Amino acid sequence: MAFTMHSHSGQFCPGHAKDQLEDIILHAIKVGYKTIGLTEHMPRTDLADLYPEELTPSPSESLAALLPRHTAYLAEATRLQTKYAPQIHVLIAFESEWIRASSYEPLVLALASHPAVDYFIGSLHHTRGIPIDFDGALFAAAVAACGGTEEGLFEAYFDEQFQMLRALRPRVVGHFDLVRLFSSSSADEVLSRKEGGWEGVWERVVRNLRFVKEYGGWLECNTSGLRKGLAEAYPKREIAEAWVRMGGRFTFSDDSHGIAQVGTNYWRGLDYLEGLGVRELWTLERTRLGEGGKWELAEKAVSMEEFRASLKLE
After folding, report:
1. Residue 239 belongs to what domain range?
2. Strands 119-122 vs 295-303: parallel, antiparallel or unpaired
3. pLDDT above 70 as % of the chain
4. pTM for the complete prediction?
């Protein structure tokens, strides 16, 4: 049974993604998904957290719209979950932020307590409060804020990620090494060696992986890195190999931002994991309604063979 645990729609991430949420679910059914995790971005809390496309025509209006949009998303996701239950298992979730611990930790935990929410993805899109995956200019600003070197940025990124992991313990850790997206080829090469430079970065990587393994979290193999020009999905090979050696579990995601990206590079992602010796992927299954109106969830292993068999991608 094919699935994704990470997806977005233009309906609830306007300017960032495309297409209506219902149309995305219908397409997911068409390509053979049996489970889809809906993970629209959580609301942000400050004008400084807005992206450039959100600054016009009015930053204050853009910020004020975020929380009501999240409420509307949960209502629509719940409706679609019921409507399409005979055809696809819809999980309702969100993707978290960690721009400032003081404001985002309580907000993430509050949003996660909503009875409709099954899980959340623990992600970092900022380091030192600066977006690292938007464009090269902002990535360079983040480098400058971390002492002027990519090594400093990578160390800061994995330190902030560790802070997030300890505070939130997300079931799914999103694009573990997103900081690589706009990094130089030389930086990626040094990280791959794990020695002869950047030892501090690699120590942080291993520390974070071990912590996720200790509390039972999953890393997603996120194929969006491939469509954005990286040679490998997130996480890169050396990190994925370390995770496999620890006995860590992978889930699988296209991180789609519209119909055109549903299932993008899934065959390449599956080949990548199988080359690492991964034989099963993990997802969630809603079992029964518990106290407080929240569904109880069971972890479900899916073999690579079963996953591939249900895909209907061209």
Report:
1. 2-310
2. unpaired
3. 99
4. 0.97
